[in-house]
Specification:
With 644 residues, this protein is mainly β.
């Protein structure tokens, strides 16, 4: 592509309000401490484990609100949105702050970058990239963003924002763009992709990864885009000082690259997506980057992209310095279910047959945890290729087998039969049977069909972008799951989007409910603790509430469990204090006992907390737990702590 610097000049530097600067203007960046939360998953390996232990099972019941901070964002009229009829609006407030020396850095729904005083919640600076001026992102959710990346040098701190097609470098002390980075503080992430890309169709939600002097980044794209050469997936690395491209890895292998033959009939030349939209992690000692990859376009029909389609739905290990492939493992061949690897991989050490194995594990939408030796890519437990049902959709060529891990046990329900229909009352069962009459039931990997296939896990998983948290002391991995099926129906292709003889048929996923009640039995959301040394489930508990379901007249008089479980992606973190914190996407912040799964505390929120929480220590030594809530009509960041 040609230079777009003229277009980028539409985004002038935004003035910043300096209410406080004492916590954010180091002459030299301080070393990390146990009280910090320096990356999206706390550490480079994404464990979401904090060594803080001020808050414990003995005192967690005393948590109270320490401070709150409001985004002040609301829907706005105009400008014209890329999709007709949409207005510009914030989606859920999904950010997880990073914390350095009592300063929090995070993004709002509208992609503003905020620096807060961690002790008080007072704003230090506020940078607005004015992303909303380009209209509503075409994702169906409104504006969402989950965080920033921070690079610390010997005498400066840089905060990096990836907002749609732009990568912006900010001074950590002032929030002003760093003029020497790219063009006046930013670069265009679409300049070096496989083909010319509509920048309005290119999105970002997960923060980049920092490794040494490199910033490594993937991209998002709305699943609904289905056209030849829709935005492709690449992982790119940029110099943190200059913004220059250092390397790029094609997730759709081109001629001469390994895996190209898995895209038959030249489909590598026009099939998009296959992107690293989820958070990535780095093994800093080995210099290895681990990334989970999404589904190719279209999510539910692949007649135009026959073959296994590497590196779609794979765990990819790259040399973080060069971008060269170290190894990969494809968890779903020729994906037809939107079974992305949606959450960050997790680095851990596990014991296998008395031997310590430095492993990487990733939780899939499939409900499986896939676990590998970091050096070799060999599965820690056997993964078996098993026959799966074939597709009978015209033009489709589904894979005859799929990988099934033998351990750990699945953390969510898999497959859906008539016996799985809700039976809380005879009337609900009757209505569920009537609602699903004519649809196809089947095991995991039953393909989408013309009449409609009921798939479990559904389109939100299993696991999702909340990922997993790992306690190195107990060896437990904590995974939030959604437990509600989806209907996958293949519809006619748009006649304007054809490639050769292959029409890009459209998938139409939706949720089947009886009023507000799902067609399956509760729980509809769970938190599972998996012992990664044995591969066995230690405990599983419902997480989250569904007040609209509990109040449905169809359930009047039915004895329901205390927690019904919520269908939503957000995950957990775990602490040395023996606690697991998460909302699971509900309006309650829970503290679970990490060993037993007992709920020890519930913090009621004014709106759902649709983010991964985090914890840090203030300069006064107080441990705080932070969660982002709401968003569509104004988001709020809450910090909870023990009484001072």
């Amino acid at each position: 592509m040609g230079s777009t610097s003229g277009m980028l000049r539409r985004f002038p530097r935004v003035g910043v309000l300096l209410l406080s600067i004492h916590a954010c203007s180091p002459a030299a960046a301080p070393p990390r401490t146990d009280g910090d939360w320096p990356a999206y998953g706390r550490d480079a390996g994404g464990t979401r484990y904090s060594p803080l232990d001020q808050i414990t099972s003995d005192n967690v019941a005393g948590l109270e609100v320490a401070w709150s901070w409001e985004t002040g964002e609301a829907p706005i009229e105009g400008p014209a949105a890329p999709i007709r009829g949409q207005r510009v609006r914030p989606g859920n407030f999904e950010a997880t702050p990073v914390a350095y020396n009592d300063t929090l850095y995070f993004t709002t729904s509208y992609n503003r970058v905020i620096a807060l005083d961690g002790s008080t919640g007072a704003t230090i600076w506020d940078f607005d990239p004015r992303t909303v001026e380009w209209g509503q992102p075409p994702n169906g959710t409104g504006f969402v963003h989950r965080g920033v990346a921070v690079w610390n040098g010997p005498d400066e701190r840089r905060v990096f924002l990836n907002t749609r097609w732009r990568l912006v470098a900010l001074d950590g002390a002032t929030g002003e763009p760093i003029e020497s980075f790219g063009h006046r503080g930013e670069i265009d992430l679409t300049e070096n992709l496989l083909w010319r890309t509509n920048r309005l169709h290119y999105t970002q939600t997960s923060p980049p990864v920092v490794f040494e002097d490199l910033l490594i980044i993937g991209n998002g794209v709305w699943d609904g885009f289905v056209y030849p050469r829709d935005p492709p997936g690449n992982i790119q690395a940029f110099d943190v000082h200059t913004g220059e491209l250092v390397w790029s890895f094609n997730l759709i292998p081109q001629p001469g690259e390994p895996g190209n033959d898995s895209w038959e009939d030249g489909s590598w030349d026009y099939t998009g997506h296959t992107n690293a939209w989820a958070p990535m992690v780095v093994d800093e000692a080995r210099g290895l980057l681990f990334a989970g990859i999404g589904t190719p376009s279209n999510d539910y029909y692949g007649g135009h992209r026959k073959g296994d389609n590497l590196y779609a739905e794979s765990l990819v290990a790259l040399d973080a310095r060069t971008g060269e492939l170290a190894w990969h493992y494809q968890t779903v061949h020729h994906g037809l279910w939107d079974f992305d690897l949606p959450g960050a991989p997790v680095l851990m050490t596990v014991e296998r047959d008395g031997v310590a194995v430095e492993a990487v594990a990733v939780a899939g939408k499939t409900g499986f945890v896939y676990t590998f030796d970091r050096d070799t890519g060999e599965p820690v437990w056997p993964i078996e290729e098993r026959p799966v049902p074939p597709s009978d959709v015209p033009g489709e060529a589904s894979s005859p087998t799929q990988p099934f891990p033998t351990h750990p046990a699945p953390f969510s329900r898999q497959g859906f039969t008539p016996d799985d229909l809700i039976d809380l009352t005879p009337e609900l069962r009757r209505r569920a049977e009537a609602l699903t009459a004519g649809y196809r039931f089947g095991p995991l990997y039953e393909p989408p069909s013309l009449e409609g296939t009921i798939a479990m896990p559904g389109i939100l998983g299993g696991g999702n972008w909340g990922g997993a948290a790992f306690d190195p002391g107990s060896g437990f991995l904590f995974v939030k799951a959604s437990e509600e099926p989806s209907l996958l129906t293949i519809g006619p292709a748009n006649p304007e989007t054809t490639v050769g003889d292959y029409a890009l048929a459209r998938g139409a996923p939706r949720t089947l409910r009886i009023g507000n009640v799902p067609i399956s039995n509760p729980p509809w959301g769970t938190l599972t603790a998996i012992d990664m040394n044995s591969g066995e489930i230690a405990w599983q508990e419902p997480v989250g509430e569904r007040p609209e379901v509990r109040a449905d007249p169809a359930l009047a008089g039915v004895a329901l469990p205390a927690r019904l479980g919520v269908v939503a992606p957000p995950g957990a973190f775990v602490t040395a204090g023996g606690l697991v914190f998460l909302t699971g996407g509900s309006d309650v912040l829970y503290a679970f006992d990490a060993a037993s799964g007992e709920v020890l505390w519930e913090g009621r929120l004014p709106a759902p907390g649709y983010a991964n929480p985090m914890t840090f220590r203030t300069r006064e030594g107080r441990q705080l737990v932070v969660i982002a809530t709401g968003g569509e009509e104004g988001g709020t960041l809450f910090a909870f702590g023990l009484p001072e």
